[in-house]
Design brief:
heterodimer; A: 421 residues; alpha/beta; B: mainly alpha; two-stranded antiparallel ribbon; globular
Chain lengths: 421, 506
């Protein structure tokens, strides 16, 4: 009996999993399976990515005036922008995303973000995660509330966070799994049946948060383990195998370099995975952020490459996928005294998928003149990030307006926020 | 086994005025923890990183009152780390300028070795360098947390480090995080709040981490290169995180004004040739040539443009501000009592902060004597952070790690690498930040390793479950799990106690 068969057997016999026999069986027998075929991935860039250098308005002369040392050069120059539409250009480090711009599955919404003026990372991230800008002490995240509104497939991995901690955006009543990016971190003592049985006795039957966390953890552990192992065995992708092997020994830095393959494997191999979340740090470029190359470029490049891996890894499943990349706020339009940018306001959201017509930069764009800028210094948030998300949830996940009002309470979304910039 | 607290250095003067009160307050309904043993367990859980062998008996013997007084006076106990008398920890209290210089030399050397494809040598050099710096710093933190009789000092050090967080993996901060904690945090952990603000504000580790070393007034004689203008980073966090709190009533204009006040406060960089005068003992400099000499209007006060002294005035304004008193009091009450701290306690601590000029020891006296602290509804209501969980496992088992690198890796895997919080808000200490299905399984895996004698490749006799039970305070500490142990394999009982729901909390 190999490890996987063993786990399947465990799933069918152990008392812990009586609640959740084999999730694939559940998925297959669920009458509303169609409702689960649509997938969503949210990527949060923590620290406030400099959207004006990600999708740069090279057609605005103010752009070069405001950023004498960090503006990305015009298209055609060395380390210059990749032209998008004659006015905006994509940062050259993001070239792995250009195929999707050309096949019209990549769109941007510029000058978007939270209406709350906070320039605090922590408040602004909270607001993006709770979906309730300005409201303090909200303990549930909008992705979790979304899960409560989607038809349940009774899978412990309908919602998945990639990382070792549970982020605010996924916190709440719906059960969500977190998946450590490193294979070795996914090994657990409970893989030994005697140890599992002993801890089951202590935790099963508890009705508190620890009992709930335990049973969800055990169920998700098996499910994720199977999905990712199967991914490696069945895909036979040598690059993926190599990366996984490398990860076993490597400490951290490269941990997420294969996030694209990992997330693709999760979605491909476990049809019950529906909503996923991943976050990346390192965007708080107060000093020395560079232009076409440099610090920001070094962060953008692996991200763009990982997203490219993801889309290619998804294969046909990309048809059913919507990917959103966002960040808590943008950065000052003018570069600061240290070749960097300080905390600002509006930013650019990235959309990958077939719901929104790609190959376009959307947004209410008023340029970078002092009068057009928020408080004379930052890009305004002329499109509320929730309007963009609401449109995706409605179109892509067929969410009712009633459900939408639970995901984003006290918010009136603009029906189609996609006006061309 | 004898408690580590037996090593008291001198006899403590009796402080008669302070009585551990459990009388219910008039205004709010409270049910004090009534069982004496549970009160001792509660106290040890909160003002230490959990009981270690003999601790409960020690507190039973000397009394909770005297124990609290001892813990509030850490100088009574020996510190297990003596950096002045140790080769391994020599850099812990090192001079920042030397350490930054060594780091640059080290980086150059590694680059050179790599260019010459001498990878093995580069690896060995790196290992040796980290052994002297971050590895040693993390080890010292762990030794103290696990072994120091000055437990409250260690608990407070962890609290303040998170409050004034610096991330180890930001270039020059790598060799500085240890000295930062040693010089700017631990000495004032039970001192005055203002001392902490002053020390962190002037420590190179913070000046580099939040970029103030480059903060420059535009158009000044010293402006140039990459240092041409203002950088708001530190100014904002100094108000948002360190003092006033995000709702403390400051405006964007105050951020700009404070950034101007802070211009020129930095390192011997960025103009090393100038030989800037070192203005404090840790290596901060003040470059008047990059300072904004205009008058500032900051939080309603006028600060005359005068140079370095403006910073002192600004710190004074921030530390005397009522929002700061409230913010710090809230955080202390949250850390020691409940994730959602009782408003009455916060109000009382705020009054003590204001009345004593931010005396942390006095705030702790009030907190530990408050009916809220002893209220049964807050007993066992806090969920341990990974750091506290791992340290408490070692303490309750009476084990000392043979390989501290393994402990550091464990904490990293649980999302709480020591000195590893990237963002300036530091690690959270509340349940919602740490409790997740996967995190719980990870703890259970660790508990199983400790409890079955298979920790990080090392082999040892697994801890006896009966002694764990006794150390933690007996069956009352494991009310639900202890009765379920009967019939479980002997070899798993320790693991089950350490991985039990009760031991996840404190």
């Amino acid at each position: 009996m190999n490890r996987r068969q063993f786990l399947m057997m465990m799933a069918a016999t152990s008392s812990a999993s009586l609640l959740l026999p084999s999730p694939r069986v559940w998925a297959a027998s669920n009458s509303s399976e169609a409702a689960h075929t649509q997938k969503l991935l949210v990527v949060l860039l923590r620290g406030g990515v400099d959207g004006l250098n990600v999708v740069a308005p090279y057609g605005d002369n103010d752009y070069y005036a405001l950023r004498p040392t960090i503006a990305v050069p015009r298209p055609g120059s060395e380390k210059g922008l990749l032209d998008l539409d004659g006015h905006f250009g994509l940062h050259p480090a993001m070239s792995p995303l250009m195929p999707f711009w050309h096949n019209k599955t990549l769109a941007f919404v510029h000058s978007a973000g939270s209406p709350d003026p906070s320039r605090s990372h922590f408040d602004a991230q909270d607001y993006m995660e709770t979906g309730m800008p300005g409201a303090h002490n909200i303990s549930t995240g909008w992705l979790n509330r979304l899960l409560t509104q989607l038809p349940s497939n009774h899978s412990p991995v309908q919602g998945v966070g990639l990382g070792v901690l549970m982020p605010r955006i996924l916190s709440g009543a719906a059960s969500v799994a977190t998946v450590a990016p490193q294979t070795k971190l996914r090994k657990n003592a409970i893989d030994n049946p005697a140890i599992l049985a002993a801890f089951n006795k202590i935790y099963n039957g508890r009705r508190d948060v620890l009992g709930k966390a335990y049973s969800e953890g055990v169920a998700a552990h098996k499910e994720v383990d199977i999905a990712l192992q199967q991914g490696l065995q069945d895909e036979g992708d040598p690059m993926m195998k190599e990366q996984m092997v490398a990860n076993r020994n490597a400490p951290s830095a490269a941990e997420f370099s294969n996030f694209g393959q990992q997330i693709a494997a999760l979605f491909n191999n476990d049809p019950t995975v529906q909503v996923a979340f991943v976050d990346f740090g390192g965007w708080d470029t107060h000093i020395n952020q560079g232009a076409g190359s440099g610090q920001l470029a070094q962060h953008l490049e692996p991200l763009a490459r990982g997203l490219n891996d993801l889309v290619r890894g998804l294969g046909r499943l990309y048809e059913n996928m919507q990917i959103v990349v966002m960040s808590e706020f943008g950065r000052t339009a003018k570069e600061n005294g240290n070749g960097g940018t300080d905390h600002g306001h509006g930013n650019v959201m990235w959309l990958l998928g077939k719901n929104v017509e790609g190959g376009k930069v959307y947004g209410r764009w008023a340029g970078l003149s002092p009068a057009a800028l928020h408080e004379g210094r930052d890009l305004p948030t002329s499109t509320d990030f929730r309007s963009v998300l609401a449109a995706l949830l409605t179109d892509h996940l067929s969410l009712s307006s009633r459900s939408l009002s639970i995901v984003f309470p006290q918010f009136q979304p603009v029906p189609r926020p996609f006006v061309q910039a | 086994m004898r408690s580590r607290f037996h090593s008291v250095l001198t006899v403590l003067p009796v402080v008669a005025s302070f009585i551990v009160s459990c009388a219910p307050s008039m205004a709010v309904e409270q049910t004090p923890i009534d069982n004496q043993d549970e009160r001792i367990i509660h106290l040890l859980n909160r003002i230490s990183f959990g009981p270690s062998p003999g601790d409960i008996r020690y507190v039973q013997k000397v009394g909770m009152q005297k124990f609290i007084d001892e813990q509030l006076n850490p100088q009574l106990y020996r510190d297990p780390i003596d950096s002045s008398n140790s080769n391994e920890f020599a850099n812990l209290n090192g001079d920042s300028i030397t350490l930054m210089h060594q780091f640059r030399e080290f980086s150059k050397e590694i680059k050179q070795l790599k260019n010459e494809h001498r990878d093995q040598e580069a690896r060995e050099e790196s290992i040796a360098y980290f052994a002297r710096t971050t590895d040693a710093y993390r080890k010292a933190r762990l030794i103290r947390a696990i072994n120091s009789p000055r437990q409250l000092e260690e608990v407070m050090t962890e609290f303040w480090y998170n409050h004034f967080n610096v991330f180890s993996n930001k270039v020059l901060d790598l060799p500085l995080v240890g000295p930062y904690e040693e010089q700017a945090i631990r000495p004032f952990a039970l001192g005055k709040f203002k001392q902490l603000v002053q020390a962190t504000c002037h420590h190179p580790a913070m000046l580099f981490y939040l970029d103030n070393w480059q903060n420059t007034a535009e158009g000044t004689p010293g402006a140039g290169g990459k240092n041409k203008g203002l950088n708001e980073n530190y100014a904002r966090e100094l108000m948002e995180l360190h003092t006033l709190g995000v709702d403390g009533g400051y405006k964007q204009e105050d951020v700009i004004q404070l950034a101007k006040i802070l211009t020129g406060l930095g390192l011997t960089e960025p103009r090393p040739k100038l030989q800037l005068q070192i203005i404090d003992r840790y290596g901060a400099t003040f470059d008047i040539a990059r300072h904004d000499m205009s008058d500032k209007r900051f939080l309603g006060h006028v600060i005359k443009g005068s140079g370095e002294d403006e910073i002192e005035q600004a710190i004074d304004i921030l530390c005397k501000h009522p929002a700061t008193a409230r913010h710090i009091s809230y955080q202390l009450a949250q850390y020691f009592v409940a994730d959602k701290p009782p408003a009455q306690l916060v109000a009382r601590l705020t009054a003590v902060f204001t009345g004593t000029g931010g005396d942390i020891k006095e705030m702790m006296r009030t907190l530990l004597g408050s009916p809220e602290f002893w209220d049964a509804q807050y007993d066992q209501n806090k969920f341990k952070t990974p750091f506290r969980y791992v340290v408490s496992c070692y303490r309750v088992s009476g084990l000392e790690p043979q390989n501290y690198g393994f402990v550091s890796q464990t904490l990293k895997g649980q999302g709480q690498m020591i000195y590893g919080c990237l963002t300036p808000d530091g690690y959270k200490t509340i349940e919602s930040a740490w409790l997740s299905p996967d995190a719980l399984l990870r703890r259970i895996a660790f508990a199983t390793q400790v409890g079955t004698g298979h920790l990080g490749g090392q082999q040892y006799d697994p801890p006896d479950y009966k002694s764990i039970l006794a150390t933690a305070g007996g069956v009352v500490a494991f009310r639900e799990t202890a009765p379920k142990l009967a019939g479980e394999p002997e070899g798993l009982k320790s693991a089950l106690l350490l991985g039990s729901p009760e031991f996840m909390r404190y």
